[in-house]
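quick q for whoever's on today - can somebody do inverse folding on this one?? i tried earlier but teh output was garbage lol. tokens:
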């Protein structure tokens, strides 16, 4: 009889402890989820601000290039045909340069390295990392 009573008391204590542990685990999970959500909102906000700033910088660069070319073509004592050919050449140079810069900026390997995803992936799958100086 005392044996069953003792088992019942131990079972009740174990159930109570497990309920408390479950409750604390759920609270910790909610805190972690909230932290992740806030981090995501912060990242989205900073991305939007960065995008707006980049748009402003690109607009100012375009305006500067346009004003430079207008001034250059007004001051050059060339014929209209030679000015047009020169303008086409400069446009082609700008397109090629912009394409090369855009390609290197959007390279997946560059993004993986800059974001630290390469190290996270290597750590997650247990691969040894290469030294950073190589």
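ok took a stab at it. sequence:
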């Amino acid at each position: 009889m005392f044996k069953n009573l003792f088992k019942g008391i131990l079972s009740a204590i174990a159930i109570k402890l497990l309920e408390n542990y479950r409750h604390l685990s759920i609270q910790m999970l909610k805190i972690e989820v909230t932290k992740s959500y806030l981090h995501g909102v912060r990242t989205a906000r900073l991305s939007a601000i960065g995008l707006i700033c980049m748009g402003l910088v690109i607009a100012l660069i375009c305006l500067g290039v346009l004003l430079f070319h207008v001034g250059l073509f007004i001051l050059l004592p060339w014929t209209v045909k030679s000015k047009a050919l020169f303008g086409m050449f400069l446009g082609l140079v700008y397109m090629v340069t912009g394409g090369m810069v855009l390609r290197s900026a959007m390279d997946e390997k560059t993004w993986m390295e800059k974001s630290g995803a390469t190290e996270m992936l290597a750590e997650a799958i247990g691969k040894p990392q290469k030294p950073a100086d190589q």
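fwiw Residues 2-75 form the longest helix (74 residues). also The chain has two domains: 1-75, 77-128. so keep that in mind when u check it
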